[in-house]
Structures are given as structure tokens and as C-alpha cells.
Amino acid sequence: MASKINTSFTLIPNQKYRRSNRRPSSYFSNTLGSDSQPLSTLGNFKALPLEIFQIILRYLSVKDISMLSMVSKTVSQHIINYISTSSGSKRLLLQDFHNLELPSKRQDSAILEHYRSLGLLFKRCTLLLPTRERLKYIHKILAEVSCFKFNGCAVPIQCLGLPCYGIFLQTLTAGWDGLECHRVYNFLCELTNLSRKMQTVVCSKPGSARKLELRIRLFCRNVLLDHWIHRSDSAFWLTRILKPWPMVNQARLLYIIFGPVSPQDVVPREWLLENNARLLILSGNNICFTFMASKAVNGRAIELAKLIVFLALVCEKELYCMDWAVKMMQKVCKVFSTPVERNNFLQSVANAFACVIMEMLQSIMSGDRDEDDRSFLNLFHLVHAQANFHKEVLYLSMNTLST
Ligand SMILES: [Zn+2]
Fold first, then answer.
1. How far is residue 289's CA from residue 355's CA, in Å, rounded to a whole number?
2. Rounded-to-integer distance, Cα 394 and Cα 71, Å
3. 130 alpha carbon to ligand 1 midpoint, in Å?
4. Which residues of 109-127 are buried (b: 16+ CB within 10 A; e: fewer)?
5. What is the CA(368)–ligand 1 centre distance, in A?
6. What count of other Cβ atoms lies within 10 Å of the Cβ of residue 222?
7. How far is the CA of 158 from the centre of ligand 1 (A)?
């Protein structure tokens, strides 16, 4: 996986090399010297009792400890033991995720940076283990942090736990190939029972499992998707999330993960029509047409007419070619099966222009002053959108007549 920190990491040897070297059964031991590793790889540290070695670690930064862990397997083992001690985990597993009194960006980024360094430390300490063993070990240690758990935090919206967990995992998995990252995703799914939870929300009515929707959104965004620099990485993880589901459930999951949120909770509210129109335009001709054609097939002419108005408005605001909107209307028109239905639809489009203009005018006349400028500008664009739209319709019909 590409990431900005990629280059600063020791590259992990490839799978084959690691397989031949791993010795998981003897890798972790809780007592110094009980294992078969020769102590000589401790170098001058050999003279020191374990307690003193751990006291020295207290004076080192997390980054320095992670450098030290690469000296030898024995040193790395001692460091692993240190992480498991109560003083080690107290120092390393910071849990100050809810500092609401003094919300400061700097404090936020300090704890994120800490978990970035910690990810590197774990990456280096567990270098010789196969992926699954690595993950198991790491999660045994991280199990202490309740805010890292799917349901572990009481105030998930204000919590920095999951973002820290995400940064930690990002650092840990930097440079891993797709297959190994897939293992990571499966491991997380098993750990959190994510698929089962997703099943529950996609099978129930929107908003009926609001808390679960929120947890799923926060987990996917904070742990798996939001912190990547490169879009391809986000796309990789998003593909892991969506791939097992049929298309209709994928759409629902996308909505839960990326849809708009109200300040109180995550339940998506109905979008403004203008935003719907923008999304459709950005989705490309095929999706846009398919969406509109399905409305036409279902006889929802009035709804469709209003959408045409907002497609025209977005074209006007964004300086897209207005003839695109007209041609889209023409194509959709052909979906209606009878001339009567087609004429009704065209009549509805003309009415919808008048209706939306009147609505905007009314809101300006009754609205407060602050809103005035924005509403007025919107109306201005809409009137021009209507003019341009009709100009294109005239061109189309007149040119057809003259040829
Ligand atoms: Zn929390």
C-alpha cells in the first residue's frame, strides 16, 4: 500500500523469506532467558537486569524504542515484554481521546502522531511473525483500549480513538501487499463481527438501526478509509467493504458511510434536489440516464420534471453545456411509451420551471436578510438556466424543422 510514510519504513521481506524464518512458538516469552535465544545478541545490555533495561526504555521516545527493536531478535523480544508490562502499556497505550474542554488541533494531532509511532514500533517488533500471528498478538495488547473497539466508546462522535486506531493500522500495514491487507480486513471483520452488523443495517429500514449505522460509518471511515493520502488506498479498502454485497446493498452502505449527517446523529436526511442533480451529473451519462429512465418507467413524471429543472440549474451554475440537459430530457422522453405520456412529461417540465421559480421568489420575499443574497443569487441562476434551457430546445426543434 502506498502511503506518505512508506519510504521511511524498513521494507518487510517477502512472504517466502518470512515463512522460512518465523518461529512463532518461541517468539514471545514472558521471562528473560527462558527461551532458546542466545543472550549474546543483547550485546552490552547483557550486563543489565531486565528491570534496568525497562527503566532505560522509559527514557526513550517511542520512535527510538522502535529503532532499538531492530538491533536484534532478543532486544526486540525484551521490548515486546516491556510493552506487555503495566507500566509499558500505561505509557504507550495513551487513552486521552475525549479532551473536550480544550479542543485544540495540536493536541489532536499529538495523539495521532503517537499512534503513528506506536504502529511503527509494533511493525518492527513483530516483523518476523506471519501476518495472522502478528495481528493476533497486536490485538491482544490493544484489547485494553476500549475506544478502539467497535462498540467500545460511549461518545463515539467526539472520540479520537478510532482515528488513532486507523493511523496505527495504516502504519502497521504500510508496504504490505494486497493479499496481506485483505487478511487484515478479514481479521478486523472477525474481530468486530462487521459483516453481520452490516447485514443488519442493510436489511432494515433506513434509520431503524440508527446507532448501528453510526457505528458502522465511524468504524469504516475512521479506521479504514479516511486517513489515506492516495485515493487508490482508500479505494482498495472501500472495495474490501463493498465487494461481498449485491449492488443494492452496496449503494445503501455507501450512503451510510458517506451520506450527509445531521449534527445529532447519522441518519441521512433527504438531500436537496440540487445536490441530487449534482451527484447524477458527476455519476456520468449512463448512471444518470438509467436512474431517470427507471423513474420514467414507473410513471413518476412530476418528480422527473423537477429533477430536469435542477439539472439545468447545476449546468447553469457550473457552466456545463446546457444542451446536455436538453438531450438527456429528450432521451428520457423516449422512455415514456405513449405520446400522451410524453406530452404530460414535457408539460410537467415547463410547470416545474415556473413552480420552482415561484418557490424561490416566495422564500426571498419572506426570508430573513442574511439569507437574502444567497437566495437571490440562486433565483438569478435559475432564471438564466430556464432561458438557456429553452434556447437549446428552440435550436433543436427549429434545426430539425429546417433540415
Ligand atoms: Zn472514546
1. 24
2. 78
3. 31
4. eebbebbbbbbbbbbbbbb
5. 40
6. 20
7. 7
Q: Is 131 exposed, middle or buried (0-12, 13-18, 19+ CB in 10 A)?
A: buried
Q: Find the 59 Cα to ligand 1 centroid distance in Å.
A: 28
Distance 145 CA to ligand 1 centre (A): 9
Q: How far apart are CA 304 and CA 298, in angstroms?
A: 10
Coil vs helix vs strand at 193? coil
- How many angstroms separate the alpha carbon of residue 126 from the centre of ligand 1? 27
Instruction: Look up residue 258 and give its three cell numbers.
Output: 458517506
| Cell numbers linked to 208 | 431503524
Distance CA 390, CA 358 (A): 18
Which helix (H) or strand (E) element contains residue 90? helix 86-92
**Grid coordinates standing for 338?**
405513449
Per-residue pLDDT of 303-360, as tens digits, reads: 999 999 999 999 999 999 999 999 999 999 999 989 999 999 999 999 999 999 999 9
Q: Is 225 helix (H, G, I), strand (E, B) or coil?
A: helix
DSSP 245: S
Could you tell me the distance, in angstroms and rounded to a whole number, from the CA of residue 135 to the centre of ligand 1? 22
Report pLDDT digits (tens) over 217-267. 999 999 999 989 888 999 999 999 999 999 889 999 998 998 877 655 545
Region of 9 (left: φ > 0; alpha: ψ -120 to 50; beta: rest) is beta
